[in-house]
Amino acid sequence: MNVNPYLNFPGTSEEAFEFYKSVFGGEFTSLVRFKDMPMEGVDLPKEAEEKIMHIALPLGEDHLLMATDAIESMGQNLVQGNNHYISVHPDSREEADRIFNGLSQGADVEMPMAEQVWGDYYGSLKDKFGIGWMVNHGAPQEG
Length: 143
Fold this sequence. Notes:
Elements (H helix, E strand, L loop, with lengths): L5 E4 L3 H12 L5 E4 L18 E8 L3 E7 L15 E4 L4 H11 L4 E8 L5 E6 L5 E6 L6
Parallel strand pairs: 1-4, 5-8
Antiparallel strand pairs: 2-3, 3-4, 6-7, 7-8
Helix pairs in contact: 1-2
């Protein structure tokens, strides 16, 4: 079983995902706009036509970061909260630094990348879109 984070944005999904693509690389596996979806009985507001109905960006081999735009005029209310983070676990300190530095552009850095008392190399931030990220490179396991 895979678990993939699904994010809601207030009309900024495309901008956010172009930013995430610049940090993580890869290509979108899906990008569907509201205007492309058959929605019988729904009066799609003109300003919502180009907004993102669904977007997906692979993170590694088995995971996707996905999102949609919440359209207030369609009754979708978005409340930004502090109850979620996306935790990424790069294979090296160098990759951890690269990802953290990329996500740090315009971000509120909560904890800079550093060695932690639990033995890992870790940092956390809220990116410029209000999404919480944890970057954690685990200490090598003794065996």
